[in-house]
Amino acid sequence: MVGLTTYRLPILRGSAGALIACVVSDTGQPSRLPESIVGRMADSPEGPLDRFVLSSAGFERRLRAVRPGQWAWPTPCTEWNVRRLVNHMTRGNLNYVGLLQGGTSEEFLRLRDADALGTDPVGAYARSAEECAEAFAAPGALERILDYPLGKVAGRQALAVRTTDATVHTWDLARAIGVDDVLDAGLVTWIDDHLEDIYAGLAETPVAVDTTHRFFAAPEGVLAADASRQDRLLRRMGRTPAQGR
What we know:
Pfam families: MDMPI_N. InterPro entries: CHP03086, DinB/YfiT-like, Maleyloyr_isom, MDMPI_metal-binding. Residues 57-174 form the Mycothiol-dependent maleylpyruvate isomerase metal-binding domain. GO terms for molecular function: metal ion binding. The chain is mainly alpha-helical. The protein has a domain at 47-201: dinb family like domain (Four Helix Bundle (Hemerythrin (Met), subunit A)), CATH 1.20.120.450. 45% of the residues lie in helices and 4% in strands. The protein contains 8 helices and 4 strands; from the N terminus they run E-E-H-H-H-H-H-E-E-H-H-H. The strands form 2 sheets. A two-stranded antiparallel ribbon has the order 1-2. The longest helix has 23 residues, at 155-177. The radius of gyration is 17 Å and the shape is globular. The chain starts with 21 loop residues before the first strand and ends in a 9-residue tail after the last helix. 38% of the residues are buried.
């Protein structure tokens, strides 16, 4: 059995509380998020890089289970089949690296759907996840202001968005190919507890009633009173977790 990629980076355990999360005001100048938000987002035994690596490993584990005939299968993201979903994740990692290297939101969007998989989707994703982790682990990366398409944000907040994306798309991939779709409980809890903070100040968020739903699908259906934390989070992110069970 092929093992998961070992991401080679210095995990910054315990450092989250010392980092500054910020958004950028209409004047283009960075403004600190309220200290209460910074504190809440840091309230976890894992650091931001730990969570990203964990979410990436979860996606890779499902990716390695994709069989040759499944690449064209549909996913819960109706605009993407399995290959396009994996490309979205791979290209996304590379685009975040680009932002950390001074890239623009225009470049990010222009490359959003460009093929990044070639003939080796698994290897391409694994390499992109490692490159992304290493870029965010670089000195000063979490404080750097990035020209993110939904608004200029500090690297720390961008990394939280990326971790959320990887976690939710892990479920999409698992559901598409019929493998274990139970997400890491710690990641689910942290994201669900901090969802408003993760997307604070961005032009579109999955938690805003008046969002355009350009990037986030609207929640559908009604959850049972005893729904799991994972199902509650998935619904907030526009998924229908009970569908297909």
